[in-house]
Amino acid sequence: MSKCEQCIIRQFNSLKSLTKEELIRISGCKTTKTIKKGEIIFEEGENINGVFCVKDGICKLSKLSANGKDQIVKLVVKGDLLGQRSLVGEESANLSAVALNDMEVCFIPKHEIMNDLQQNSKFSFDVLQQMAKDLKESDDIIVNMAQKSVKQRLAETLIYVYNHFGNNDEGFLDVILSREDYANIVGTATESAIRILSQLKKEGLISTSGKQIKIEDLKGLESIE
Amino acid sequence: MSKCEQCIIRQFNSLKSLTKEELIRISGCKTTKTIKKGEIIFEEGENINGVFCVKDGICKLSKLSANGKDQIVKLVVKGDLLGQRSLVGEESANLSAVALNDMEVCFIPKHEIMNDLQQNSKFSFDVLQQMAKDLKESDDIIVNMAQKSVKQRLAETLIYVYNHFGNNDEGFLDVILSREDYANIVGTATESAIRILSQLKKEGLISTSGKQIKIEDLKGLESIE
DNA sequence: GACAATATATGATATTTGTCATGTTTTAAC
DNA sequence: GTTAAAACATGACAAATATCATATATTGTC
C-alpha cells in the first residue's frame, strides 16, 4: 500500500502541515478505496467519522431538497479533503458525495486524526483556513443564486469548470457533467439548462458534441448579463 | 472600561475558551464602540484586521451584487463574533456589516488575538467549530435559494426571526426589519416581498402594524409549499 | 452492430417573479 | 403638530423560468 508520507497529493491540502511522524501513523491506519463513476461516497445523514483525501477524480457534494431535486453545492477535486466538517462536530453529514468520474480516495478515521487537530496548531490552522475559504465561496454562491439569472449562473459554471479543470486534447471541457448536473449546480430545471446551452450554442459562445462542451468565446460568456 | 474577563457575553462565543490571562491581555487592547442603527461597521473590501464581539444589538452581513442589490447572507446577534474570517487570511472583508438596531461591540485587533489562535488549541478548535457551523448554514441557504419559492423562503425567514429573537410584549417580532431587508434576505424584489407579506396577512398567517409583524399561525407558515 | 435505457432537445403553455407606475401610510425631523 | 422623506402597498404588465408533452440522439450492454 502506498504511503502518505510519500504521497504528493497531500501537498495540495491541509495534510501538508502534518509532521513526518504524524503522517507515518496516519498512513498505517488509512484505507484506500477505488470509487466508480456514479457511486456514492457518503450520503446526507450518514455518520462518516473521518476525512477522505481525494487522490484522483472528481465528486459532487449535493443535498436533496424537499421537492426531490438535488442541489449541488460544491465540486471536490483531486487534492481536496472531503468531509472535513465531520471532524469538528458530532453531527452526521449535511451533504451527499457522489463520484463524477472514477476516483481514488484515502479514508482517514476521525479518531486517528483528531489528536493532530488538537495538538498540531499548524495543521488545525490550515484546516481553519480551508474552512474559511469554503465559507467565502458558499456566501458568494448565495449572492449569485439570489441575484443573477439562470443564464448568467450557467455561463459562470461553464467558466468555473473551464478554469478549474481545463480542456482535453480536442478542446472540450475535461470534466463531463450531464445537463442534469449543470441544472443542479445552477439551481434550475434540467430543461431550462438544456435550453440555455442550446441558446449559447446558437450565439456561438459554446459548441457541443454529445455531452462534451467546448468553450468558443470565453469573453462572450463572461459578459452575459 | 469594562473587562473581558468579567464580561458575560463571551460565554456565547469562542472567546470562552481563552484563559484568564489571555482575556486580561485582550481586555487591555480592545476598544468598545457604540454603533447607531443603520451605521456601517465595516464594508466589503475593507481591511478589518480584527474581530468584533457583539455585546448588544443585531447587524446584517450583506454583499452588493452587480445589479445594485444588497444580498443579506447572515444576521449577526448579541454574543456572536463578527469578522472571524479576517483572522485566518490576509484578504479584505467579503461582506459588509450594517447595524439593524443600536449596537455595542468590542473590537479586538487581529495581532493581539492571532497568537492565541495559534497557541491555544481549545480556542482555535472552537473557532473552527463555529466556522463549520456557519458553513453548514450557508450550504443550507444555497439549497433553499435554489429550490424553494420566494413565498417559502420568506415564510422561513419569518420563522427564523421568530425562533431567534422572539416577540416583544405585544406579540410582535422583536427584531424590526424593513420590507427591503426581508427582500434582501430572501433574494427577491422589494415589491414581491411586500406583496407576499400582504398575501400572508390575507391568509391569516401573520398580522402587521406599520413595520411590526406578528406571527399568528406558526404551523401555517411552516406548512407553506 | 442492434437494442434498450438514458440523456438531450424543443415546442406549447402555465406559473412565478420582476418592473414600472402611482397612490397611501408611516416615520422622523423640525 | 406639520411636513417632507422614506417606506409600504397595489395594479398592470413584462420577463424569466417551470412544467408537460413528445421527439430525437447518444451511450452502454449484450
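Residues 74 and 83 of chain A are 12 Å apart (CA to CA).
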